[in-house]
Amino acid sequence: MMNTIIEENHISFKELEQKIFNYVCELAREITQIILESYDNELASARDRTKYRDKGKRSTTIKTVYGEVEYQRRVYQAIHEDGRKAYVHLLDKAMQMDKIGLILTNLAEKIALTVTGN
Predict the structure, then answer these.
(1) Which is the most buried residue in 25, 38, 98, 113, by most CB within 10 A?
(2) With 90 as the cut, is the pLDDT of residue 80 above it?
(3) Distance between the two ends of the chain, CA-based, in angstroms?
(4) Residue 48 and residue 46: Cα distance in Å, rounded?
């Protein structure tokens, strides 16, 4: 990254700032993906297999304050006491990922603050 910036001639501070920001956001998205997928693997190993039947991984995307993060998570089939089937993501429950659609609450709060000027 630094060699690329140094090799460019006459880069402005604004351009430098944007390049660094983009690089850090990209790194944050990659780290988030790795953490989420690793934690999902741990949850899969430790789950109650009599309650949660692994139905495989599905791709999903969440919008964060540093951009969209695409990752794989498992979906599980659970049976309610009345016999109804339900599909759950243990990762979402464990991480308390309150989402409004595919936008995480933290991002939604930042958008609301920006719009309202607070």
Answers:
(1) 25
(2) no
(3) 35
(4) 7
**Coil, helix or strand for 55?**
strand
How do residues 28-79 score in pLDDT, each as one tens digit?
999 999 999 999 999 999 999 999 999 999 999 988 889 999 999 999 999 8
Q: Which residues contact residue 85 at a Cβ distance below 8 angstroms, ignoring those fewer than 6 apart?
A: 77, 78, 79
**52, 87, 97 from 45: Cα distances, Å:** 11, 18, 20
Strand order across the 103-104 sheet: 85-88, 67-79, 53-64, 103-104, 99-100
Which residue matches tokens 């304050």?
Answer: 65
Beta carbons of 32 and 69 less than 8 angstroms apart = yes
Tokens of 45: 């190993």
- What is the pTM (predicted TM-score) of this model? 0.75
